[in-house]
Amino acid sequence: DLYIEFENHPEYTQSLLSIVKNENENILVQVLACAILTNVRDVVRLSTSWDDEGDTASELNKILVPVLMKALDYDIQEAAAHTITAVQSGRMHLHKETSDITPKPKQPLTNEEIFVQGVEDKLSIIQLALELLADICVQDDESEEKEDGYQDEAMMDDDDAPTVSQNIVLTHQRTLECLNNFLLAMNDIPGKYWFKTHRTDAVQLWRWLFTIADQVANSNPEEWARNAILEAVIGCLWALGRGLEQDIPLEPTDVGALCGTYEMIPLETMRVKIVGCLGPIAMRKNDIETNKVIGVFVMKLLSEKKYSSPAVIVEALNLVYDVYSDCAFDYDYPVFIQGDFLNALRQAVSSVRSMVKAIDRRRDFDLRMRADEALENLNAFI
């Protein structure tokens, strides 16, 4: 067992720490050392005594984060521009099907080919660094599956390495996921301190994320690239909205853009995030019309369940419980009462119950647990 090996051989940890602390060490080697230390942090000893009551995880993070941040110091836009020039030079030999660099037999790599391979390597390092930073933000909730994920990427075989364009997309995605994990962590701090002390930055971030989404949607990228970036952006908006609450700087087109994306892209995970993102927006005071638009949209999802997945239905129900939990809200009477939402919920009970029973507890335990809770709350809410 890996943990036992490191526990029995503390010199392994010290060797890795020496690599991380050595400023002259190769950055790839340093990041890989950070990945290993992150995976075995439960048995890492930074003190000479096992009786030390210090927060080892926090102390380890103080060592790792500067190295990981250093790995991000790379001008991706400049690299992309030079890569385009290299590809257009005619001095690169690419495989017709995979677009991998395939030099002629017994011929050395050209300078252009060496440059592009270097860009791919650098982007792979950045992606791993971002995953590790994202992991540090949510260490308490991490899963072994996630740990295995960045290990697999770090040890990716050269034959499976993505092209530069794919790497750039993945880097943007990892960056947004890292931001999302940071925002989730800030939401867990009592009083949401970060959102209050950095309100201006948080407000600007909301608009920046919508700008990114607009640019991606209008640039006609490949479908997988578009979906990956948009889903990461929407995840950030969801976490950011929960923190900003009444300070969400909503523009007239924001809700329409989210609902339109829901209709346009039938990706369950993205649709769940969109519904979740609409929740904090709907709870804003003095904006009854926006609440009505969101409320009608969500009730439509619940009434047309054959077009909605169980995960989306569960998120939609949770939105209803949160948004319409108090008759004192200014939008409750003109939207919930006059819109006859309660009667619609009563009519939905039977089909929601059937949906919940159809979820295999053995195959999808987490979803079944959340669905059971949503059904129980539906009856209580009514």
TrEMBL record:
GO molecular function: unfolded protein binding
InterPro entries associated with the record: ARM-like, ARM-type_fold, SYO1-like, TPR_SYO1
Pfam assignment, any one: TPR_SYO1
Taxonomy, superkingdom: Eukaryota
GO BP of this protein: protein import into nucleus; ribosomal large subunit biogenesis
TM region(s), chain numbering: none
UniProt domain SYO1-like TPR repeats: residue ranges: 157-382
Entries under SUPFAM superfamilies matching the protein: ARM repeat
PANTHER family linked to this entry: HEAT REPEAT-CONTAINING PROTEIN 3 (PTHR13347:SF1)
Family: Belongs to the nuclear import and ribosome assembly adapter family.
Protein's name according to its UniProt entry: SYO1-like TPR repeats domain-containing protein
